[in-house]
């Protein structure tokens, strides 16, 4: 089966960078297209209603941070697959909703896993949600595998 459209979730963490590089390799091998999705929202949209407001919670700041993450990972993908057709999409909303929606009709959804880095082996909420609402086959890439470590860029930054 030839993969034509691969969607990868990107949040700027080493785990999502490993997933991105795996997705690039897969898309290049299958002569496919890559869609990079970064979901974002203000901290006020995801915090408890009784939590204190912080000036860091403003929309412009969050949008700027999200844009920087997406630009960095898009550059990483284009560097790893110079001839690959790469599209990037900034989606305002929760990744648990945005990623399955973006992957609807795709051939593959690729996500990073922070389970081993977290230390308890449990899967995160985003990954579990995407596995529950699979719009297509889902691949989970662990940044701690030897192959992923080999491809990881030195000094990759977290989004937060």
TrEMBL record:
It comes from Nonomuraea glycinis. Residues 4-141 form the UspA domain. Belongs to the universal stress protein A family. InterPro entries: Rossmann-like_a/b/a_fold, Universal_stress_UspA, UspA. This is Universal stress protein. Gene3D superfamilies: HUPs. Pfam families: Usp (PF00582). CDD domains: USP-like. PANTHER family: STRESS RESPONSE PROTEIN NHAX, UNIVERSAL STRESS PROTEIN UP12. It comes from the Bacteria.
């Amino acid at each position: 089966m030839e993969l034509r459209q691969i969607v990868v979730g990107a949040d700027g963490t080493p785990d999502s960078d490993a997933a991105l590089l795996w997705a690039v390799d897969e898309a290049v091998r299958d002569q496919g297209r890559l869609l990079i999705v970064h979901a974002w929202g203000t901290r006020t949209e995801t915090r408890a209603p009784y939590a204190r407001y912080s000036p860091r919670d403003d929309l412009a700041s969050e949008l700027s941070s999200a844009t920087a993450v997406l630009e960095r990972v898009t550059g990483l993908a284009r560097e790893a697959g110079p001839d690959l057709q790469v599209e990037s999409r900034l989606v305002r909303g929760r990744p648990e909703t945005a990623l399955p929606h973006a992957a609807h009709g795709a051939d593959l959804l690729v996500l990073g896993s922070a389970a081993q880095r977290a230390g308890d082996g449990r899967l995160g909420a985003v990954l579990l949600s995407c596995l529950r609402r699979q719009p297509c086959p889902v691949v989970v890439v662990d940044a701690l595998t030897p192959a992923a470590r080999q491809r990881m860029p030195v000094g990759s930054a977290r989004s937060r």
